[in-house]
Specification:
Radius of gyration: 34 Å
Oligomer: single chain
Low-confidence stretches: 213-234
Number of domains: 2
CATH architecture of the largest domain: Beta Barrel
Shape: elongated
Strand content: 35-45%
Mean pLDDT: 84
Distance between the termini: 84 Å
Number of strands: 8
Order of helices and strands: EHEEHHEEEEEHH
Length: about 250
Amino acid sequence: MTLGATYQSKTSMSKFDKYKGLFANQGEFDIPENYGAGIAWKASPALTIASDVVRINYGDIPAVGNPVDCLFAGACQLGSTNGAGFGWRNTTVYKFGITYELNPSVTLRAGYVKLDQPIPQSQTFFNILAPGVVEDHLTLGATWKMGSNGELTVMYMHAFENTVSGQGSIPPGAPPGFGGGEANLRMSQNSLGVAYGWKYSRAGAVGWANGPPYAIVRRSPGSTGSAGASPRRRSTSARRASRRTAARRQA
């Protein structure tokens, strides 16, 4: 069994100049703080079961969490300091997945994700631009090993349709109202992905990191010694020198 935890602080991003008239604080759009914990259990040599819980604090990002009410009331403008946003609430994401090694070449995967969609009923009008209301996701995937280094991965994701009906979402009157009524949001999603990967063997990578797996020894031009010669050449030179010494002794 394996336990894990994760934490990511709010990440400050550079401003979107082209959207400074839309996102609060003149185009500011940071990545929200998120944290979570997870557990993985290897039920058998082939089967692994895992589960994660992640909290995402959308409400701390003005462009995402600020409600749009001040715009409708004429108290702020789009893109202004601490201006209108999408009104998203913080949310918790629950993830469950399994991995099964069918054989040494094929690995199968499946997962399910559940979250509380972050858009309040009073904020649906402005979220026509970002109708992220899906709550339930199903994922399927498989990886095939191709030879000793290649692998092909295929994945499919389906987000089940969900609807959020507006409640007091469009203010009456004009200006600053928009005539009243409600904005209802509905979304479903499908995603298909294919990836090909190539793995380099660790042995080859280490060998070449320290130089080629063989050595070529060369004598430098003008060299008269045998230090740079191969072992075979050194042994031949030694035999010749020994013969010359023996011949001089006999003479």
